[in-house]
Amino acid sequence: MTTIAPQIDPDEAWRLLIGGEQVEAAGTYEVVNPATTEVVGHAPDASVADAEAAIAAANAALPSWRDTPMADRCALLGRLADVLAERSDTWADLVQAETGATLRIAQTLQLGHTFVERFRYYSQPRDLTVGIPPQPVAASALGSAGVVGAVVDRQPVGVVACITPYNFPLVNVAGKIAPALAMGNTVIIKPAPQDPLGILRLGEAVTAAGFPPGVVNILTSAGPDVPATLVSSPGVKMVSFTGSSPVGAAIYANGAATMTRVLMELGGKGAMVLTDDADVNAAVQAIATVWGFHSGQICTAPTRVICHRSLYDQLVSTLEAVSGMLTVGDPRADDTVVGPLVSERQRDSVEAFVQGGVDAGATLLAGGERPDLPGYYVAPTLLADCTADMHCVREEAFGPVVVAMPHDGDDEAVALANDSDYGLFSYVYAGDNARALRIARRIQSGNVALNSIQPHNEAPFGGFKMSGIGRDRGVWGLEAYSEVQAVSWLA
Ligand code: NAD
Questions:
Q1: Ligand 1: does its nearest atom lie under 6 Å from the Cβ of 299?
Q2: Is the dihedral of CA 20, 24, 27, 30 positive or negative?
Q3: Which atom in ligand 1 lies closest to the alpha carbon of residue 191?
Q4: Roughly how many angstroms between the first and final C-alpha of the chain, as a whole number?
Q5: pLDDT tens digits for 368-382?
Q6: Into how many domains does the chain fold?
Q7: Of 4, 54, 251, 337, which sits with the fewest C-beta atoms within 10 Å of its C-beta?
Q8: pTM, entire model
Q9: Mean pLDDT for the stretch of residues 42-46
Q10: Are 361 and 374 in the same domain?
Protein backbone atom coordinates (compact mmCIF):
# COMPACT_ATOMS: atom_id res chain seq x y z
CA MET A 1 0.00 0.00 0.00
CA THR A 2 1.40 3.41 -0.99
CA THR A 3 0.02 6.63 0.42
CA ILE A 4 1.24 10.04 -0.68
CA ALA A 5 0.47 12.88 1.73
CA PRO A 6 -1.75 15.62 0.26
CA GLN A 7 -0.27 19.05 -0.54
CA ILE A 8 -2.83 21.44 0.95
CA ASP A 9 -2.55 24.62 2.98
CA PRO A 10 -5.45 24.59 5.47
CA ASP A 11 -4.79 28.27 6.25
CA GLU A 12 -5.16 29.49 2.68
CA ALA A 13 -7.45 32.52 2.46
CA TRP A 14 -10.33 31.76 0.10
CA ARG A 15 -12.53 34.41 -1.55
CA LEU A 16 -15.93 34.64 -3.22
CA LEU A 17 -16.07 35.75 -6.86
CA ILE A 18 -18.53 38.62 -7.36
CA GLY A 19 -18.48 40.98 -10.34
CA GLY A 20 -14.96 39.92 -11.27
CA GLU A 21 -13.62 40.75 -7.79
CA GLN A 22 -12.22 38.38 -5.19
CA VAL A 23 -14.48 39.24 -2.24
CA GLU A 24 -13.79 38.39 1.39
CA ALA A 25 -16.88 37.07 3.17
CA ALA A 26 -17.73 38.28 6.66
CA GLY A 27 -17.30 34.75 8.01
CA THR A 28 -15.90 31.35 7.12
CA TYR A 29 -16.78 27.73 7.86
CA GLU A 30 -14.67 24.59 8.05
CA VAL A 31 -14.41 22.17 5.14
CA VAL A 32 -13.54 18.76 6.56
CA ASN A 33 -11.70 15.82 5.01
CA PRO A 34 -14.17 12.95 5.48
CA ALA A 35 -11.40 10.35 5.57
CA THR A 36 -9.48 11.96 8.43
CA THR A 37 -11.89 14.56 9.89
CA GLU A 38 -9.04 17.10 9.52
CA VAL A 39 -9.77 20.62 8.29
CA VAL A 40 -9.01 21.05 4.58
CA GLY A 41 -9.71 24.77 4.54
CA HIS A 42 -12.00 27.57 5.63
CA ALA A 43 -14.57 28.38 2.98
CA PRO A 44 -16.07 31.87 2.74
CA ASP A 45 -19.55 31.89 4.26
CA ALA A 46 -21.41 34.29 1.98
CA SER A 47 -24.19 36.49 3.35
CA VAL A 48 -27.52 37.47 1.85
CA ALA A 49 -25.90 40.82 0.95
CA ASP A 50 -23.19 38.92 -0.98
CA ALA A 51 -25.92 36.97 -2.81
CA GLU A 52 -27.70 40.20 -3.71
CA ALA A 53 -24.41 41.70 -4.92
CA ALA A 54 -23.80 38.63 -7.11
CA ILE A 55 -27.32 38.89 -8.59
CA ALA A 56 -26.72 42.59 -9.35
CA ALA A 57 -23.31 41.84 -10.91
CA ALA A 58 -24.70 39.02 -13.08
CA ASN A 59 -27.53 41.29 -14.29
CA ALA A 60 -25.11 44.14 -15.02
CA ALA A 61 -22.92 41.81 -17.10
CA LEU A 62 -25.83 40.26 -18.99
CA PRO A 63 -26.56 42.76 -21.83
CA SER A 64 -23.05 42.86 -23.23
CA TRP A 65 -22.45 39.11 -22.74
CA ARG A 66 -25.75 38.29 -24.45
CA ASP A 67 -24.77 40.56 -27.36
CA THR A 68 -21.30 39.04 -27.69
CA PRO A 69 -21.31 36.74 -30.75
CA MET A 70 -21.64 33.08 -29.83
CA ALA A 71 -18.33 32.35 -31.57
CA ASP A 72 -16.55 34.75 -29.18
CA ARG A 73 -18.31 33.36 -26.12
CA CYS A 74 -17.36 29.85 -27.17
CA ALA A 75 -13.77 30.92 -27.85
CA LEU A 76 -13.54 32.03 -24.20
CA LEU A 77 -14.84 28.62 -23.11
CA GLY A 78 -12.06 27.09 -25.22
CA ARG A 79 -9.52 29.34 -23.51
CA LEU A 80 -10.91 28.27 -20.13
CA ALA A 81 -10.54 24.61 -21.17
CA ASP A 82 -6.88 25.34 -22.02
CA VAL A 83 -6.29 27.01 -18.63
CA LEU A 84 -7.96 24.08 -16.86
CA ALA A 85 -5.95 21.52 -18.84
CA GLU A 86 -2.80 23.29 -17.63
CA ARG A 87 -3.65 23.76 -13.97
CA SER A 88 -6.51 21.55 -12.79
CA ASP A 89 -4.25 18.51 -12.21
CA THR A 90 -2.63 20.52 -9.44
CA TRP A 91 -6.00 20.68 -7.65
CA ALA A 92 -6.24 16.89 -7.26
CA ASP A 93 -5.06 16.86 -3.64
CA LEU A 94 -7.50 19.58 -2.67
CA VAL A 95 -10.48 18.03 -4.43
CA GLN A 96 -9.58 14.56 -3.18
CA ALA A 97 -9.36 15.83 0.40
CA GLU A 98 -12.63 17.74 0.43
CA THR A 99 -14.69 15.11 -1.41
CA GLY A 100 -13.10 12.00 0.16
CA ALA A 101 -12.95 10.42 -3.32
CA THR A 102 -10.19 7.90 -3.90
CA LEU A 103 -7.18 9.52 -5.51
CA ARG A 104 -7.83 7.66 -8.76
CA ILE A 105 -11.43 8.92 -8.94
CA ALA A 106 -10.34 12.44 -7.98
CA GLN A 107 -7.72 12.52 -10.74
CA THR A 108 -9.79 10.96 -13.50
CA LEU A 109 -13.46 11.68 -12.80
CA GLN A 110 -13.56 14.69 -10.47
CA LEU A 111 -10.92 16.43 -12.60
CA GLY A 112 -8.82 15.44 -15.60
CA HIS A 113 -10.32 14.83 -19.01
CA THR A 114 -13.90 14.42 -17.69
CA PHE A 115 -13.89 17.95 -16.30
CA VAL A 116 -12.01 19.80 -19.05
CA GLU A 117 -13.98 18.08 -21.81
CA ARG A 118 -17.25 19.61 -20.60
CA PHE A 119 -15.85 23.06 -21.42
CA ARG A 120 -14.14 21.92 -24.61
CA TYR A 121 -17.38 20.46 -25.99
CA TYR A 122 -19.21 23.79 -25.66
CA SER A 123 -16.30 25.78 -27.13
CA GLN A 124 -17.72 24.86 -30.57
CA PRO A 125 -20.41 27.37 -31.60
CA ARG A 126 -23.58 25.71 -32.85
CA ASP A 127 -26.35 27.21 -34.92
CA LEU A 128 -29.66 26.19 -33.35
CA THR A 129 -31.76 28.23 -35.80
CA VAL A 130 -34.57 26.28 -37.47
CA GLY A 131 -36.37 27.54 -40.59
CA ILE A 132 -40.06 26.68 -41.01
CA PRO A 133 -41.39 26.07 -44.55
CA PRO A 134 -43.19 29.18 -45.88
CA GLN A 135 -46.97 28.96 -45.73
CA PRO A 136 -49.55 30.68 -47.99
CA VAL A 137 -52.12 32.75 -46.07
CA ALA A 138 -55.44 34.18 -47.20
CA ALA A 139 -56.33 37.83 -46.62
CA SER A 140 -57.96 38.32 -43.21
CA ALA A 141 -58.54 40.95 -40.57
CA LEU A 142 -54.88 40.37 -39.58
CA GLY A 143 -53.44 41.40 -42.96
CA SER A 144 -53.26 40.89 -46.70
CA ALA A 145 -52.77 37.58 -48.50
CA GLY A 146 -49.25 36.34 -49.10
CA VAL A 147 -46.71 33.85 -47.97
CA VAL A 148 -45.65 33.79 -44.31
CA GLY A 149 -42.14 32.79 -43.48
CA ALA A 150 -40.80 32.02 -40.00
CA VAL A 151 -37.58 31.20 -38.31
CA VAL A 152 -37.14 29.76 -34.84
CA ASP A 153 -34.19 30.95 -32.87
CA ARG A 154 -32.84 30.72 -29.32
CA GLN A 155 -32.38 33.54 -26.81
CA PRO A 156 -30.53 33.24 -23.49
CA VAL A 157 -32.78 32.97 -20.44
CA GLY A 158 -30.86 35.58 -18.41
CA VAL A 159 -29.18 35.19 -15.03
CA VAL A 160 -28.94 31.51 -14.11
CA ALA A 161 -28.35 30.28 -10.55
CA CYS A 162 -26.43 26.99 -10.71
CA ILE A 163 -26.93 25.07 -7.46
CA THR A 164 -25.03 21.81 -7.22
CA PRO A 165 -24.58 18.74 -4.99
CA TYR A 166 -21.48 17.51 -3.22
CA ASN A 167 -20.63 14.28 -5.03
CA PHE A 168 -18.82 15.55 -8.15
CA PRO A 169 -18.56 19.28 -7.45
CA LEU A 170 -16.49 20.39 -10.45
CA VAL A 171 -18.02 18.17 -13.10
CA ASN A 172 -21.53 19.09 -11.99
CA VAL A 173 -20.75 22.81 -12.17
CA ALA A 174 -18.95 22.46 -15.51
CA GLY A 175 -21.98 20.65 -16.99
CA LYS A 176 -24.13 23.65 -16.10
CA ILE A 177 -22.03 26.74 -16.72
CA ALA A 178 -20.45 25.66 -20.03
CA PRO A 179 -23.72 25.43 -22.00
CA ALA A 180 -25.28 28.32 -20.05
CA LEU A 181 -22.39 30.64 -20.92
CA ALA A 182 -22.23 29.44 -24.53
CA MET A 183 -25.89 30.48 -24.93
CA GLY A 184 -25.25 33.98 -23.54
CA ASN A 185 -26.51 33.64 -19.97
CA THR A 186 -24.58 34.93 -16.96
CA VAL A 187 -24.27 32.60 -13.97
CA ILE A 188 -24.08 32.49 -10.21
CA ILE A 189 -22.60 29.25 -8.90
CA LYS A 190 -23.64 28.00 -5.46
CA PRO A 191 -21.78 24.74 -4.82
CA ALA A 192 -22.64 22.29 -2.05
CA PRO A 193 -21.30 23.36 1.34
CA GLN A 194 -19.31 20.15 1.91
CA ASP A 195 -16.69 20.55 -0.85
CA PRO A 196 -16.65 24.05 -2.38
CA LEU A 197 -12.91 24.81 -2.51
CA GLY A 198 -12.21 23.31 -5.95
CA ILE A 199 -15.01 25.53 -7.30
CA LEU A 200 -13.20 28.60 -5.94
CA ARG A 201 -10.12 27.40 -7.84
CA LEU A 202 -12.33 27.20 -10.94
CA GLY A 203 -13.24 30.85 -10.32
CA GLU A 204 -9.53 31.77 -10.45
CA ALA A 205 -9.26 29.94 -13.79
CA VAL A 206 -12.33 31.78 -15.14
CA THR A 207 -10.65 35.09 -14.32
CA ALA A 208 -7.35 33.94 -15.87
CA ALA A 209 -9.17 32.92 -19.06
CA GLY A 210 -10.44 36.49 -19.43
CA PHE A 211 -14.19 36.25 -18.87
CA PRO A 212 -15.71 39.72 -18.39
CA PRO A 213 -16.50 40.70 -14.77
CA GLY A 214 -19.88 39.47 -13.53
CA VAL A 215 -20.37 36.80 -16.19
CA VAL A 216 -19.40 34.11 -13.67
CA ASN A 217 -19.97 34.64 -9.95
CA ILE A 218 -19.34 32.18 -7.11
CA LEU A 219 -20.98 32.10 -3.69
CA THR A 220 -20.03 29.49 -1.11
CA SER A 221 -22.11 29.20 2.04
CA ALA A 222 -22.79 26.77 4.85
CA GLY A 223 -26.44 27.55 5.46
CA PRO A 224 -29.73 27.92 3.61
CA ASP A 225 -29.98 31.75 3.34
CA VAL A 226 -27.85 32.20 0.23
CA PRO A 227 -29.54 29.52 -1.92
CA ALA A 228 -32.91 30.73 -0.61
CA THR A 229 -32.06 34.27 -1.78
CA LEU A 230 -31.00 33.01 -5.21
CA VAL A 231 -34.11 30.90 -5.86
CA SER A 232 -36.56 33.61 -4.76
CA SER A 233 -34.98 36.64 -6.43
CA PRO A 234 -36.76 38.20 -9.43
CA GLY A 235 -33.24 38.96 -10.68
CA VAL A 236 -32.64 35.23 -11.28
CA LYS A 237 -34.50 33.96 -14.35
CA MET A 238 -33.53 30.29 -14.17
CA VAL A 239 -32.45 27.86 -11.48
CA SER A 240 -30.36 24.98 -12.73
CA PHE A 241 -30.41 22.57 -9.83
CA THR A 242 -28.75 19.23 -9.30
CA GLY A 243 -29.46 17.59 -5.97
CA SER A 244 -32.06 15.69 -4.01
CA SER A 245 -35.68 15.44 -5.16
CA PRO A 246 -37.20 17.06 -2.02
CA VAL A 247 -34.99 20.16 -2.38
CA GLY A 248 -35.73 20.24 -6.11
CA ALA A 249 -39.47 20.12 -5.41
CA ALA A 250 -39.15 23.01 -2.93
CA ILE A 251 -37.25 25.13 -5.50
CA TYR A 252 -39.83 24.30 -8.20
CA ALA A 253 -42.73 25.32 -5.93
CA ASN A 254 -40.89 28.46 -4.88
CA GLY A 255 -40.42 29.62 -8.48
CA ALA A 256 -44.04 29.14 -9.57
CA ALA A 257 -45.16 32.71 -8.90
CA THR A 258 -42.41 34.19 -11.10
CA MET A 259 -42.35 31.33 -13.65
CA THR A 260 -38.65 30.93 -12.92
CA ARG A 261 -37.26 28.48 -15.44
CA VAL A 262 -35.88 25.30 -13.97
CA LEU A 263 -33.60 22.49 -14.97
CA MET A 264 -33.90 19.77 -12.36
CA GLU A 265 -31.39 16.92 -12.19
CA LEU A 266 -32.57 15.02 -9.13
CA GLY A 267 -32.32 11.73 -7.28
CA GLY A 268 -32.29 8.21 -8.69
CA LYS A 269 -32.78 4.59 -7.71
CA GLY A 270 -31.27 2.88 -10.71
CA ALA A 271 -33.01 -0.35 -11.65
CA MET A 272 -30.72 -3.14 -12.88
CA VAL A 273 -32.82 -5.80 -14.63
CA LEU A 274 -31.29 -9.24 -15.30
CA THR A 275 -33.24 -11.53 -17.61
CA ASP A 276 -33.05 -15.33 -17.39
CA ASP A 277 -30.22 -15.41 -19.97
CA ALA A 278 -28.15 -12.54 -18.54
CA ASP A 279 -24.40 -12.78 -17.99
CA VAL A 280 -24.32 -12.76 -14.18
CA ASN A 281 -20.60 -12.05 -13.89
CA ALA A 282 -20.83 -9.05 -16.20
CA ALA A 283 -23.80 -7.76 -14.22
CA VAL A 284 -21.98 -8.26 -10.92
CA GLN A 285 -19.04 -6.21 -12.21
CA ALA A 286 -21.46 -3.43 -13.06
CA ILE A 287 -23.35 -3.62 -9.77
CA ALA A 288 -20.13 -3.61 -7.74
CA THR A 289 -19.50 -0.06 -9.00
CA VAL A 290 -22.19 0.98 -6.50
CA TRP A 291 -19.61 0.12 -3.84
CA GLY A 292 -16.41 1.16 -5.57
CA PHE A 293 -17.37 4.25 -7.55
CA HIS A 294 -17.24 7.11 -5.01
CA SER A 295 -18.83 4.83 -2.39
CA GLY A 296 -22.18 4.84 -4.15
CA GLN A 297 -22.60 8.61 -3.99
CA ILE A 298 -23.78 8.57 -7.59
CA CYS A 299 -27.31 9.42 -8.75
CA THR A 300 -27.06 6.98 -11.68
CA ALA A 301 -25.78 3.93 -9.75
CA PRO A 302 -27.45 0.54 -10.40
CA THR A 303 -28.56 0.18 -6.78
CA ARG A 304 -31.88 -1.68 -7.27
CA VAL A 305 -31.22 -5.13 -8.68
CA ILE A 306 -34.15 -7.03 -10.17
CA CYS A 307 -32.90 -10.48 -11.14
CA HIS A 308 -34.64 -13.47 -12.74
CA ARG A 309 -35.32 -16.08 -10.05
CA SER A 310 -33.35 -18.76 -11.94
CA LEU A 311 -30.16 -16.65 -11.57
CA TYR A 312 -30.98 -14.94 -8.29
CA ASP A 313 -29.04 -17.20 -5.88
CA GLN A 314 -25.98 -17.13 -8.13
CA LEU A 315 -26.21 -13.36 -8.38
CA VAL A 316 -26.50 -12.62 -4.67
CA SER A 317 -23.82 -15.13 -3.67
CA THR A 318 -21.39 -13.67 -6.24
CA LEU A 319 -22.18 -10.15 -5.10
CA GLU A 320 -21.65 -11.19 -1.49
CA ALA A 321 -18.26 -12.70 -2.37
CA VAL A 322 -17.17 -9.62 -4.36
CA SER A 323 -18.23 -7.23 -1.59
CA GLY A 324 -15.75 -8.93 0.73
CA MET A 325 -12.87 -8.44 -1.70
CA LEU A 326 -13.07 -4.65 -1.86
CA THR A 327 -10.58 -2.77 0.31
CA VAL A 328 -12.27 -0.12 2.42
CA GLY A 329 -9.99 2.58 3.79
CA ASP A 330 -7.67 5.49 3.13
CA PRO A 331 -8.77 6.99 -0.20
CA ARG A 332 -5.19 8.02 -0.92
CA ALA A 333 -3.90 4.44 -0.71
CA ASP A 334 -3.52 2.87 -4.13
CA ASP A 335 -5.26 -0.40 -3.16
CA THR A 336 -8.36 1.28 -1.70
CA VAL A 337 -11.60 0.76 -3.61
CA VAL A 338 -14.16 2.10 -1.13
CA GLY A 339 -13.44 5.46 0.50
CA PRO A 340 -15.53 7.40 3.01
CA LEU A 341 -18.88 9.10 2.58
CA VAL A 342 -18.75 12.88 2.49
CA SER A 343 -19.80 13.60 6.08
CA GLU A 344 -20.79 12.18 9.42
CA ARG A 345 -24.37 13.13 8.61
CA GLN A 346 -24.32 11.17 5.36
CA ARG A 347 -22.71 8.18 7.09
CA ASP A 348 -25.40 8.22 9.80
CA SER A 349 -28.15 8.56 7.20
CA VAL A 350 -26.86 5.53 5.25
CA GLU A 351 -26.51 3.47 8.43
CA ALA A 352 -30.12 4.28 9.38
CA PHE A 353 -31.21 3.37 5.84
CA VAL A 354 -29.58 -0.06 6.10
CA GLN A 355 -31.02 -0.71 9.57
CA GLY A 356 -34.45 0.24 8.21
CA GLY A 357 -34.06 -2.38 5.48
CA VAL A 358 -33.12 -5.06 8.01
CA ASP A 359 -36.04 -4.08 10.26
CA ALA A 360 -38.40 -4.37 7.29
CA GLY A 361 -37.29 -7.96 6.64
CA ALA A 362 -34.46 -7.68 4.08
CA THR A 363 -31.58 -10.16 4.44
CA LEU A 364 -28.28 -8.45 5.19
CA LEU A 365 -25.66 -10.40 3.25
CA ALA A 366 -22.80 -7.89 3.42
CA GLY A 367 -21.99 -4.77 5.43
CA GLY A 368 -23.99 -3.56 8.39
CA GLU A 369 -21.01 -2.93 10.64
CA ARG A 370 -19.17 0.37 10.85
CA PRO A 371 -15.55 -0.05 9.65
CA ASP A 372 -12.99 0.63 12.38
CA LEU A 373 -11.52 3.69 10.66
CA PRO A 374 -11.23 7.34 11.70
CA GLY A 375 -13.47 8.87 8.98
CA TYR A 376 -17.07 8.46 7.82
CA TYR A 377 -17.09 4.98 6.30
CA VAL A 378 -19.81 2.53 5.39
CA ALA A 379 -18.78 -0.97 4.25
CA PRO A 380 -20.11 -2.36 0.95
CA THR A 381 -23.65 -3.41 1.85
CA LEU A 382 -25.99 -5.94 0.24
CA LEU A 383 -29.65 -6.24 1.22
CA ALA A 384 -31.23 -9.28 -0.45
CA ASP A 385 -34.77 -10.69 -0.62
CA CYS A 386 -36.24 -7.20 -0.67
CA THR A 387 -39.78 -6.38 -1.71
CA ALA A 388 -40.96 -3.39 -3.71
CA ASP A 389 -42.75 -1.80 -0.76
CA MET A 390 -39.64 -1.51 1.43
CA HIS A 391 -38.20 1.94 2.09
CA CYS A 392 -34.73 0.65 1.16
CA VAL A 393 -36.09 -0.24 -2.31
CA ARG A 394 -38.12 2.92 -2.79
CA GLU A 395 -35.61 5.54 -1.64
CA GLU A 396 -32.02 6.30 -2.51
CA ALA A 397 -29.32 5.65 0.09
CA PHE A 398 -26.61 7.69 -1.67
CA GLY A 399 -24.05 5.30 -0.25
CA PRO A 400 -22.54 1.87 -0.98
CA VAL A 401 -25.81 -0.04 -0.65
CA VAL A 402 -27.28 -2.53 -3.14
CA VAL A 403 -30.79 -3.96 -2.75
CA ALA A 404 -31.81 -7.12 -4.62
CA MET A 405 -35.10 -8.84 -5.39
CA PRO A 406 -36.13 -11.69 -7.69
CA HIS A 407 -38.60 -11.64 -10.60
CA ASP A 408 -40.33 -14.37 -12.60
CA GLY A 409 -40.29 -12.94 -16.11
CA ASP A 410 -39.78 -9.85 -18.24
CA ASP A 411 -43.25 -8.41 -17.57
CA GLU A 412 -42.77 -8.58 -13.82
CA ALA A 413 -39.22 -7.20 -14.14
CA VAL A 414 -40.52 -4.18 -16.07
CA ALA A 415 -43.34 -3.66 -13.54
CA LEU A 416 -40.85 -3.76 -10.65
CA ALA A 417 -38.44 -1.41 -12.45
CA ASN A 418 -41.28 1.07 -13.01
CA ASP A 419 -42.64 0.74 -9.47
CA SER A 420 -40.55 3.69 -8.33
CA ASP A 421 -40.93 7.42 -7.92
CA TYR A 422 -37.58 7.78 -9.67
CA GLY A 423 -36.59 7.27 -13.31
CA LEU A 424 -33.08 8.55 -13.92
CA PHE A 425 -30.78 5.79 -15.14
CA SER A 426 -31.66 2.11 -15.53
CA TYR A 427 -29.81 -0.92 -16.84
CA VAL A 428 -30.85 -4.12 -18.62
CA TYR A 429 -28.62 -7.18 -18.74
CA ALA A 430 -29.98 -9.78 -21.18
CA GLY A 431 -28.56 -12.51 -23.43
CA ASP A 432 -28.52 -10.09 -26.36
CA ASN A 433 -29.04 -6.39 -26.91
CA ALA A 434 -32.17 -6.90 -29.03
CA ARG A 435 -33.99 -8.43 -26.06
CA ALA A 436 -32.47 -5.81 -23.72
CA LEU A 437 -33.71 -3.03 -26.01
CA ARG A 438 -37.28 -4.38 -26.04
CA ILE A 439 -37.27 -4.23 -22.24
CA ALA A 440 -35.55 -0.82 -22.13
CA ARG A 441 -38.32 0.69 -24.24
CA ARG A 442 -40.84 -0.26 -21.55
CA ILE A 443 -38.85 1.24 -18.67
CA GLN A 444 -39.77 4.74 -17.49
CA SER A 445 -36.28 6.14 -17.22
CA GLY A 446 -34.46 9.06 -18.85
CA ASN A 447 -31.51 6.82 -19.70
CA VAL A 448 -31.21 3.06 -20.09
CA ALA A 449 -27.93 1.23 -20.73
CA LEU A 450 -27.91 -2.23 -22.32
CA ASN A 451 -25.44 -4.85 -21.06
CA SER A 452 -23.15 -2.02 -19.98
CA ILE A 453 -23.03 0.81 -17.50
CA GLN A 454 -21.13 3.16 -19.77
CA PRO A 455 -23.05 6.39 -20.50
CA HIS A 456 -22.65 8.37 -23.73
CA ASN A 457 -21.40 11.81 -22.71
CA GLU A 458 -23.26 13.64 -25.46
CA ALA A 459 -26.58 11.82 -25.01
CA PRO A 460 -29.33 13.83 -23.28
CA PHE A 461 -29.22 13.31 -19.55
CA GLY A 462 -32.12 13.71 -17.12
CA GLY A 463 -34.94 11.97 -15.40
CA PHE A 464 -38.54 10.85 -15.61
CA LYS A 465 -40.85 11.36 -12.62
CA MET A 466 -39.18 12.61 -9.40
CA SER A 467 -35.76 12.34 -11.02
CA GLY A 468 -36.17 15.73 -12.61
CA ILE A 469 -37.33 18.05 -15.35
CA GLY A 470 -35.42 18.78 -18.53
CA ARG A 471 -32.28 17.40 -20.12
CA ASP A 472 -28.70 18.57 -20.39
CA ARG A 473 -25.48 17.40 -22.09
CA GLY A 474 -24.77 17.63 -25.80
CA VAL A 475 -26.97 19.97 -27.78
CA TRP A 476 -29.73 19.44 -25.20
CA GLY A 477 -27.60 21.47 -22.79
CA LEU A 478 -27.75 24.48 -25.12
CA GLU A 479 -31.50 24.08 -25.48
CA ALA A 480 -31.94 23.84 -21.71
CA TYR A 481 -30.35 27.26 -21.14
CA SER A 482 -32.33 29.12 -23.79
CA GLU A 483 -35.79 30.35 -24.67
CA VAL A 484 -37.37 29.58 -28.04
CA GLN A 485 -38.23 32.63 -30.12
CA ALA A 486 -40.21 32.43 -33.36
CA VAL A 487 -39.93 35.34 -35.83
CA SER A 488 -42.38 35.56 -38.76
CA TRP A 489 -42.81 37.84 -41.77
CA LEU A 490 -45.14 38.23 -44.72
CA ALA A 491 -43.71 38.09 -48.22
P1 NAD B 1 -29.02 18.37 -1.61
O2 NAD B 1 -30.32 18.42 -2.31
O3 NAD B 1 -29.00 18.21 -0.14
O4 NAD B 1 -28.18 19.72 -1.90
C5 NAD B 1 -27.89 20.13 -3.21
C6 NAD B 1 -27.65 21.64 -3.23
O7 NAD B 1 -28.85 22.31 -2.87
C8 NAD B 1 -26.58 22.12 -2.26
O9 NAD B 1 -25.80 23.11 -2.91
C10 NAD B 1 -27.40 22.72 -1.13
O11 NAD B 1 -26.71 23.73 -0.41
C12 NAD B 1 -28.58 23.31 -1.89
N13 NAD B 1 -29.81 23.51 -1.12
C14 NAD B 1 -30.20 22.87 0.00
N15 NAD B 1 -31.42 23.32 0.39
C16 NAD B 1 -31.80 24.25 -0.52
C17 NAD B 1 -32.96 25.05 -0.69
N18 NAD B 1 -33.98 24.99 0.16
N19 NAD B 1 -33.03 25.89 -1.76
C20 NAD B 1 -32.02 25.95 -2.65
N21 NAD B 1 -30.89 25.20 -2.54
C22 NAD B 1 -30.78 24.36 -1.51
O23 NAD B 1 -28.17 17.22 -2.33
P24 NAD B 1 -26.74 16.61 -1.93
O25 NAD B 1 -26.87 15.86 -0.65
O26 NAD B 1 -25.68 17.64 -2.06
O27 NAD B 1 -26.53 15.59 -3.14
C28 NAD B 1 -27.13 14.33 -3.20
C29 NAD B 1 -28.37 14.34 -4.06
O30 NAD B 1 -28.08 14.86 -5.36
C31 NAD B 1 -28.91 12.93 -4.30
O32 NAD B 1 -30.31 12.97 -4.20
C33 NAD B 1 -28.48 12.62 -5.72
O34 NAD B 1 -29.25 11.66 -6.37
C35 NAD B 1 -28.60 13.97 -6.36
N36 NAD B 1 -27.79 14.06 -7.56
C37 NAD B 1 -28.42 14.08 -8.77
C38 NAD B 1 -27.68 14.14 -9.94
C39 NAD B 1 -28.35 14.18 -11.30
O40 NAD B 1 -27.68 14.56 -12.25
N41 NAD B 1 -29.60 13.80 -11.43
C42 NAD B 1 -26.28 14.20 -9.89
C43 NAD B 1 -25.67 14.17 -8.64
C44 NAD B 1 -26.43 14.12 -7.48
A1: yes
A2: positive
A3: 9
A4: 75
A5: 999 999 999 999 999
A6: 2
A7: 4
A8: 0.97
A9: 98
A10: yes
